Amino acid sequence: MMKLGVMGGTFDPVHYGHLVAAEGVRYEYRLDKVIFVPAGRPPHKPNYRISDPEHRLALVRLAVASNPFFEVSDLEIERPGLSYTYDTIREMRRLHDPDEIYFITGADAVLEILSWHRFEELLEICRFIAATRPGYELGGLTGRLRELPAHLVERIVPVEVPALAISSSDIRRRVREGRPIKYLLPESVEAYILSRALYKSELHQDQSFCK
Ligand code: ATP
Ligand code: MG
């Protein structure tokens, strides 16, 4: 029985919130591995200028290096057009032939699932594991998703993970303002950000569109 976890995100940059959520879910569900998939062009963040995919990919590679259960895929980055999770899960099925796929999200992302491309079919082909995240109420999950058929609601499960009030947008803001990011992400990730002077420029000023 092969159980595959998939952790999607912009990862601009990856931080301990992502890693703790993925590791918590991996353990709870006894996943064989978790593949991190940095988004190419996220449909939900059209107004925010995302860092080069090569940088985001390199950062995730550094971040997962010390965990034998974690891998990284450049599948969304290499695929042209918008990055839809539905296409990604289909591709993961084809490539790895797992018995079960668990798509790992934070509480904020899972609450938006009703607006996702082909979300009903998506829920048919993978389970959603919603990691708790400070500032987002998972209690609202059942309320908002009530309109879904019961067999699909069952496919979405919350998992309690250690609460880390860390976000990529806060990290970008901190870098821009010269405030510390130490202990919010792995040292190798911090070193890469500092050495390439990521998040210093005006490009990352328009923060109002992303949380
Ligand atoms: P941004 O601030 O740019 O939106 P982010 O910190 O939310 O960045 P994303 O790349 O948007 O990071 O998130 C990828 C996935 O990780 C999402 O499902 C998100 O809910 C989850 N996630 C991010 N940070 C945390 C955290 N601190 N705890 C739990 N889950 C998290
Ligand atoms: Mg986010």
Quick structural summary:
The chain contains ten helices and six strands. Strand 2 (33-38), helix 2 (53-64) and strand 3 form a beta-alpha-beta unit. Helix 2 (53-64) runs antiparallel to helix 10 and helix 4 (85-96) packs parallel to helix 6.
CATH topology: the name is Rossmann fold
CATH architecture title: 3-Layer(aba) Sandwich
Instruction: Output the CATH class name.
Output: Alpha Beta
Strand content: 15-25%
Domain unit count: 1
Q: In sequence order, what are the helices and strands, one letter per element?
A: EHEHEHHEHHEHHEHH
Distance between the termini: 37 Å
CA radius of gyration: 17 Å
Strand order of the largest sheet: 3-2-1-4-5-6
CATH superfamily: HUPs
Q: How many strand units?
A: 6
Structural class given helices, strands, pairing?
alpha/beta
Which small compounds were modeled alongside the protein? Answer: adenosine-5'-triphosphate, magnesium ion
How would a textbook summarize the main sheet? 6 strands, parallel
**What's the number of helices?**
10
- List segments where confidence is low: pLDDT < 50 over at least 5 consecutive residues: 206-211
Task: Estimate the mean pLDDT confidence.
Answer: 91
User: What is the oligomer described by this structure?
Assistant: single chain
Helix content: 25-40%
Which geometry do the CA atoms define? globular
